[in-house]
Amino acid sequence: MIAARHPHKAAADVAADWKSRNVYVSARGDWLRIAPHLWIDEHDEQCFLTAIKQE
Q: Is 0.90 topped by the overall pTM?
Protein backbone atom coordinates (compact mmCIF):
# COMPACT_ATOMS: atom_id res chain seq x y z
CA MET A 1 0.00 0.00 0.00
CA ILE A 2 1.04 3.56 -0.68
CA ALA A 3 -0.20 6.72 1.01
CA ALA A 4 -0.05 10.09 -0.72
CA ARG A 5 -1.44 13.59 -0.32
CA HIS A 6 -2.23 16.20 -2.94
CA PRO A 7 -0.80 19.59 -1.95
CA HIS A 8 -3.88 21.57 -3.04
CA LYS A 9 -6.88 19.21 -3.27
CA ALA A 10 -8.84 17.19 -0.74
CA ALA A 11 -8.22 13.46 -0.94
CA ALA A 12 -11.95 12.79 -1.42
CA ASP A 13 -12.02 15.12 -4.43
CA VAL A 14 -9.00 13.45 -6.02
CA ALA A 15 -10.46 9.98 -5.40
CA ALA A 16 -13.79 10.99 -6.97
CA ASP A 17 -12.07 12.55 -9.99
CA TRP A 18 -9.89 9.51 -10.53
CA LYS A 19 -12.84 7.15 -10.13
CA SER A 20 -14.47 8.87 -13.11
CA ARG A 21 -11.34 7.79 -15.04
CA ASN A 22 -11.47 4.20 -13.75
CA VAL A 23 -8.61 4.73 -11.30
CA TYR A 24 -9.66 3.53 -7.86
CA VAL A 25 -8.03 4.83 -4.69
CA SER A 26 -9.45 5.41 -1.22
CA ALA A 27 -9.63 8.69 0.65
CA ARG A 28 -8.52 8.28 4.27
CA GLY A 29 -8.76 11.67 5.91
CA ASP A 30 -6.31 13.94 4.10
CA TRP A 31 -4.54 10.96 2.54
CA LEU A 32 -5.07 8.83 -0.54
CA ARG A 33 -4.62 5.11 -0.02
CA ILE A 34 -3.28 3.49 -3.16
CA ALA A 35 -3.32 -0.29 -3.04
CA PRO A 36 -2.20 -1.83 -6.32
CA HIS A 37 -3.10 -5.49 -6.52
CA LEU A 38 -1.37 -8.30 -8.29
CA TRP A 39 -4.03 -8.53 -10.97
CA ILE A 40 -3.61 -5.02 -12.41
CA ASP A 41 -2.39 -4.90 -15.97
CA GLU A 42 -0.45 -2.47 -18.12
CA HIS A 43 -3.63 -0.60 -19.06
CA ASP A 44 -4.44 -0.05 -15.36
CA GLU A 45 -0.93 1.24 -14.76
CA GLN A 46 -1.20 3.64 -17.69
CA CYS A 47 -4.54 5.00 -16.42
CA PHE A 48 -2.98 5.59 -13.01
CA LEU A 49 0.05 7.39 -14.45
CA THR A 50 -2.18 9.55 -16.65
CA ALA A 51 -4.29 10.54 -13.63
CA ILE A 52 -1.20 11.53 -11.64
CA LYS A 53 0.24 13.57 -14.51
CA GLN A 54 -3.04 15.49 -14.92
CA GLU A 55 -2.97 16.62 -11.31
A: no
